[in-house]
Amino acid sequence: MLSIKGLKVKLEDEDKQILKGVDLEIEAGKVHAIMGPNGSGKSTLSYVLSGKDGYEVTGGSATLEGVDLLDMEPEDRAAAGLFLAFQYPVEIPGVGNMTFLRTAVNAQRKSRGEEEMTAAEFLKVVRARAKELKIDAEMLKRPVNVGFSGGEKKRNEILQMAMLEPKMCILDETDSGLDVDAMKLVAEGVNALRTEGRGFLVITHYQRLLDHIKPDVVHIMADGRIIKTGGPELALEVENNGYADILAEVA
Amino acid sequence: MAEAAVKQTPTDAMIATLDMPQGGWSDAARRDALARVQTMGLPGRRDEYWKYTRPDTLVQAQALPAALRDGDDTVLFDTVDRLKIVFVDGVFDAEASDDLSLDGITIERLADATSDLHWARDVYGVLENNGQNPVPRPLAALNTAFAADGVLIHVTGKPSKPVNIIYRRTSTTADAMLHNCIKLDAGAEMTLLENGPVAARFNGVLEVEVADKAAFHHVRAQGRDHEQRAATHIFTRLGAESTFKSFTLTANGVMTRNDCVIELTGDDANATVAGACVGDGGDFHHDDTVFITHDAVNCESRQVFKKVLRNGATGVFQGKILVKAGAQKTDGYQISQSLLLDEDSQFLAKPELEIYADDVACSHGSTSGAIDEDALFYLRSRGVPHGAATDLLTLAFLAEAVLEVEDEALREEVTARLASWLERHAA
Asked: Theoretical Cys-Cys bridge with B275: which of A242, B24, B190, B248, CB 3.0 to 4.6 Å?
């Protein structure tokens, strides 16, 4: 599904190499986790894949179902089926959450040549999905993420994911700023979206999110490279021993 | 004196082209106003109050021609049940207008009102004259002296629907001057809607006397002609516990100067003046100039102005709150913001506070900025194309000003008009 080969990325304005050759294959139906210490390049990877400005790809490739992602505009990547759940969801005063969701859903449909959802259809679906995530009607009416708590913002990200039904979901530190209950709720939302046709890349510092979203594969990233890949037990090893041992091992 | 003598020349040239309506109840007011203009002189380039907006095209004797905008227009406020009064090129069109009768309200035309209208005598040119201090507004005095027509509305009750003055432009050269006067009796309420381009060049004055506990709502859209020029003035005086709310939508026009002069004279009164403006191109110049005087206790005033400028457009805001001694518990709020969609556009702002009372809350803020890149990326990452995402954020920026329109149906009309403008002026 998502295929990353030798991806090298530097900051656009600075002579600073962040990703130094990342290789990653994520199959449909699988959940991959990337763990790693601060500054290892995890978030950069998620931004580069979704098309944020400020980065320059200096080598390698990234394709989604064989389609080159790196040449596409962010909106086209979204329409192609890529979704990034932000670590820090952006507040947009003046734009209603509902308007935002409907605009996004219909823009993607239009771009794929599908029929747009009517207001009534949309309302029905969004209400059902919101209910599952314990998002109340009031939150849907408010401007996007404005005045939302940390937990509400993350649930709102998952609601967007549920509405947009992407093929490939990237979750960037979705557990940051969440208490245990909020994390469980978010994890349940994600688990409900796990299907055979959908791939996940879960970026996290800590193992605890992976107790709730059970990964198939765990990667350790450090200094812009994937340095070790294993099963769920690798996450436990990090939890117990920290990154130092693994870093020492590969050095 | 030498300078004054130099300054009189364009004023005399302008006056020489105009005919003053003779006789009737307004005669004295017109003559007084003429004397004021002659004393003040029309604004020149060196006037401090016209520092950011060149008055040349507004004061020259001959108006510049202005091409008509082609393309069909949906009619604004068409979803609203209203009484229509139509002016074409500044001339009243009886056929296109509704019958001017409505419960709780008396409407007459300035050009027709030959009988002595006592109430109008107390308003016509009176509020304008009050508004000449401390800053002279000669174009308004010129208007009082020479305006050929306009509407005089006396509100005694609560009419069932808004009055809508619709302006249409068919001439590329019409130079129009209209003067509208409104008096709301104690406890009366009305909504005035104005829309459409008036003329190639327009000088407009609206005087509104709001008595105790009365409420005046005003929503104005200045038309979509690209080449029109307009200098408008609103003068209002508010009695105790009264409300005044005015919102102006400006899209297009090469030169627009909107002055609004508000005097809060009764306790617990509430005034809002707001505007949303969208301008495209180096020819576009838009100026909001506001002067609010608090002269009573516990009054609230709000100024909320938002401008979206692109391709070299210029926006100006001059807003002043004057709190007189004794006007305690004043709550004054002023915000003027611009969204600059490129580096060629500019926004010039001059917010001022002058306060002589000690128990007062006044705030003012002015910003200019670009589209929030993080918000833009967030929207795009959800599949909203660049253009649509920019429009969504632009409308969100304007929303704070549009929210000052109380009526939901009117607010939606205004928002829809802004959205369609953004669609036509894609980046």
From this structure: B248
Cα B137 to Cα B40, B140, B229, B424, distances in angstroms: 8, 6, 17, 36
Instruction: Kindly determine whether residue B378 and residue A90, on different chains, have CB atoms separated by under 8 Å.
Output: yes
Q: CA separation (Å) from B166 to A130, B107, B226, B416? A: 46, 15, 18, 18
Q: What is the mean pLDDT of residues A208-214?
A: 90
| Min distance A98 CA to chain B CA atoms (Å) | 13
pLDDT score recorded for residue B3: 53
What is the pLDDT, as a whole number, of residue B1?
45
Domain boundaries, position A188:
2-91+167-250
Higher pLDDT: A150 or B210? It is B210
Residue B249 sits at φ, ψ, to 5 deg, of: -105, 125
For the record, the structure tokens of B394 come out as: 């632009």
Nearest to B384 among A51, A90, A103 (CB): A103
In the predicted structure, residue A113 carries a pLDDT above the cut 80: yes
Query: What is the tally of structural domains in chain A?
Result: 1
Q: Looking up tokens 């600059």, which residue turns up?
A: B340
For chain B, which ranges sit under pLDDT 70? 1-8, 71-74, 114, 427
- Return left, alpha or beta for A193; rule: phi > 0 is left, psi -120 to 50 is alpha, else beta: alpha
Residue B2: per-residue pLDDT: 47
Query: Is A21 part of any domain?
Result: yes
**Quick one: pLDDT at residue B311?**
94
Using a CB–CB cut-off of 8 Å, the residues of A that contact B are 50-53, 73-75, 77-79, 83-84, 86, 89-95, 99-100, 103-105, 107-108, 111, 143, 160, 164
- Where residue A180 sits, what CATH number does that domain have? 3.40.50.300
Residue pair B293/B264 in contact by the 8 Å Cβ criterion: yes
Q: Helix or strand or coil: residue B356?
A: coil
Residues 346-405 of B with CB under 8 A from A: 372-375, 377-386, 388-389, 392-393, 395-397, 399-400
- The answer as to whether A200 is a domain residue is yes
Domain membership of residue A136 (yes or no) is no
Q: Do A167 and A65 meet the contact criterion of CB atoms below 8 Å apart?
A: yes
